[in-house]
Design a protein that fits this description.
Blueprint (H helix, E strand, L loop, with lengths): L20 H10 L1 H21 L4 E9 L2 E5 L6 E5 L2 H11 L2 H10 L6 H4 L11 H13 L1 E4 L6 E8 L2 H58 L7 H19 L6 H56 L6 E5 L12 H26 L6 H8 L3 E6 L13 H7 L4 H15 L6 E6 L6 H14 L4 E5 L6 H5 L9 H5 L6 E5 L2 E10 L8 H18 L2 E5 L8 H4 L6 E7 L5 H13 L6 E7 L1 H7 L17
Parallel strand pairs: 7-14, 8-12, 8-13, 9-11, 9-12, 13-14
Antiparallel strand pairs: 1-5, 1-6, 2-3, 4-5, 10-11
Helix pairs in contact: 1-10, 2-10, 4-6, 4-7, 7-9, 8-9, 11-19, 13-14
């Protein structure tokens, strides 16, 4: 028979598989030892690492680039001022990062002569070895970084080293070397212009001297130093013109006339040559004056540049000097240990989640409902041994001795829920998937609790292999047959615990091996159901494990409801699913589950969920 009614619909909605803060904390608590071990291991490894790693020190200096740059104009050969552009600034940063600049820093700090800077301690290195020099340059470049924020003219120089003093020296030396380089760069441009002007002055001076010599020679060759010679030549020409005019009128002085004419032509030619020489002299004097003006201009510009060379401004200035750091920035023990704790906790939580995922044992109601698809009727806490009970202690004895215990309250709650929801009949099969899950103990305990409420209860023991329920109730009777029970020849016998009769509880053991056809067996079971329902208020049928023996499925027609026992922290979800599936395939619908043998304190401490842990709160006040 199958259970019908409200109880079959209870808890059908599967819980959501989300893990909240409480759930996460519960997972951590359940694996607290592993979490502590992982975090301790992480912290230990981190501490060993930071203790082994060499300490690194960091410091910084700041250089401000000059906004205006002074350069020599190539066309005017004079100083001009230009505003720095972004391209120029980025180029300056590239210079600071260049290998050539690193060579200057390394040479200034004598790194090439220091074997411990880039080599192994105790190993002598050849300063002239190219490989060694490249190592030093690489180490120098790695020891500092340069950067600037946005469009700022401030350049930050950050140096790192295992020696705090060396870190400060590197940062300050980079700043000094750059400032010196900027000055040399500006001086170099001016010096090149000065050298050019000096060469130009020498050249112009030589040309001027040659011009003056040529002029003097020209004056001497042409008698241009005699200022009266031109007047004399003109006077001679005038005189000869007058004489020629007079003689031309005297026919008798023909010879003298011709001689005078020749002298006149010679005087005119001399005057012409004199005039042409004077014009050439004027041109030579103008050319020499131009050359002298150029020579003077070159001298003036040379003097100006030579004077300005003494006042060349720096291309940058250091505004922050690197101090010797006191504390290392790496390894930062506090930060490293804090990070190791966080990383350890994260890894431990991931490991806990993995273990939770791999752990297919059932610990709470949500897992049980999800695996079985049926409601869970309650939690039954385990009976705690305190030295007064032997291994064969009876749950009935415990109920009698502890009527207000959490165990007793859980049984009352289960019975109340069962009948309040009209579970569907008086004959209830109590079974489990595998042995040792507490089904017989729970059957006996439920019988005692129902009898305490005034019910007439029969424990029908169908587990003929072990007869666990019969043994707990002190029954040694032989197993009866169905026919004996149906005919009234055999009836239930009173239950005894430690020689005392348990009022309201009877026990009856039946043979489960019958040479009867399935149809006849079903009819016998239905008839037995009617008889037992008429004789008793509640019949609890204790069966063998479903997945081990076939009796629970064979005798399904006898029962009206089925209660499946799940052992807390032991039964797996696979076993529970297989058990429900096997019963369902034989037409037996499981009414619900009971989570048995729960440790309330662990359930509360580790946050497994469910209400069984509340029983531990009342241990002192109500139990």
């Amino acid at each position: 028979m199958t259970a019908q009614g409200p109880i079959s619909q209870l808890g059908q909605t599967e819980p959501e598989g989300r893990v909240g803060l409480d759930g996460a904390w519960s997972i951590v608590r359940r694996h607290l030892l592993m979490v502590i071990l992982i975090v301790t291991a992480f912290v230990g490894l981190a501490y060993a690492a930071v203790s082994y790693l060499p300490e690194e020190y960091k410091t910084r200096s700041t250089v401000i680039l000059t906004l205006l740059e002074t350069r020599v104009s190539a066309t005017e050969v004079e100083l001009e001022t230009f505003e720095l552009s972004r391209l120029v600034i980025e180029t300056e940063l590239d210079i600071l990062r260049s290998r050539d600049f690193a060579v200057e820093v390394a040479e200034a700090l004598q790194f090439f002569d220091e074997p411990t800077f880039a080599g192994e301690p105790g190993v002598a290195e050849d300063p002239n070895d190219p490989v060694w020099r490249e190592k030093v340059i690489d180490k120098t470049l790695k020891s500092y970084t340069v950067f600037r924020q946005g469009e700022s003219l401030a350049v930050e120089i950050v140096a790192e080293s295992t020696d705090p003093r060396m870190a400060a020296n590197i940062a300050n030396q980079v700043a000094r070397s750059y400032i010196e380089k900027s000055v040399l760069k500006r001086r170099e441009g001016i010096v090149q212009s000065i050298e050019f002007l000096r060469g130009r002055v020498d050249q112009l001076g030589e040309e001027l001297s040659q011009s003056e010599l040529s002029l003097a020679a020209f004056i001497r060759e042409n008698d241009l130093d005699d200022e009266n010679l031109s007047d004399q030549l003109r006077a001679d020409v005038d005189r000869l013109v007058s004489i020629e005019s007079i003689l031309s009128k005297d026919p008798t002085a023909q010879d003298e006339f011709e001689a005078t004419t020749q002298d006149l032509r010679a005087a005119e030619a001399a005057l012409h040559d004199r005039t042409r020489s004077q014009l050439s002299l004027m041109r030579m004097e103008r050319s020499m004056e131009l050359l002298r003006a150029r020579y003077q201009t070159a001298i003036e510009k040379l003097n100006e540049l030579e004077n300005q060379l003494q006042f060349v401004s720096q291309g940058a200035r250091q505004v922050s000097v690197a101090r010797v750091p006191i504390d290392p920035f790496w390894p930062n023990k506090r930060t490293t240990l804090a990070v190791s704790v966080v990383a350890g906790l994260a890894l431990a939580f991931i490991a806990a989640l993995l273990l939770e995922g791999l752990n297919n044992k059932l610990w709470n109601e949500d897992q049980t409902i999800a695996a079985s698809g049926v409601p869970n009727f309650g939690f039954v806490p385990k009976i705690k041994k305190k030295g007064l009970f032997s291994r064969e202690y009876s749950p009935i004895w415990f109920l009698h001795a502890n009527p207000n215990s959490g165990f007793a309250e859980a049984l009352r709650s289960l019975i109340t829920l069962w009948f309040n929801l009209a579970a569907g009949g008086k004959v209830v099969m109590v079974t489990s998937g595998l042995p040792n899950e507490g089904k017989s103990t729970l059957t006996v305990a439920l019988a005692a609790a129902a009898a305490n409420d005034g019910m007439n209860v029969l424990v029908l023991d169908l587990d003929s292999h072990r007869r666990g329920a019969s043994k707990m109730l002190g029954s040694t009777e032989k197993l009866a047959t169905f026919q004996d029970v149906l005919s009234g020849k055999t009836v239930g016998v009173p239950a005894y615990v430690d020689g005392e009769e348990v009022e309201g509880v009877q026990v009856l053991g039946l043979q489960t091996r019958h040479k009867t056809s399935p149809q006849d067996l079903k009819q016998d079971l239905q008839a037995l159901n009617k008889k037992l329902s008429a004789d008793y208020d509640l019949v609890l049928v204790d069966t063998p494990p479903v997945l081990v023996v076939d009796e629970p499925c064979r005798f399904g027609a006898l029962v009206e409801s089925t209660l499946l026992v799940v052992r807390w922290g032991r039964t797996t979800d696979e076993v529970l699913r297989d058990t429900v599936g096997k019963l369902a395939s034989n037409g037996i619908e499981v009414s619900g589950t009971v989570i048995n043998n729960v440790d309330p304190r662990k359930q509360r401490r580790y946050g497994y969920g469910g209400y069984a842990h509340y029983y531990s709160y009342g241990a002192s006040g109500y139990h």
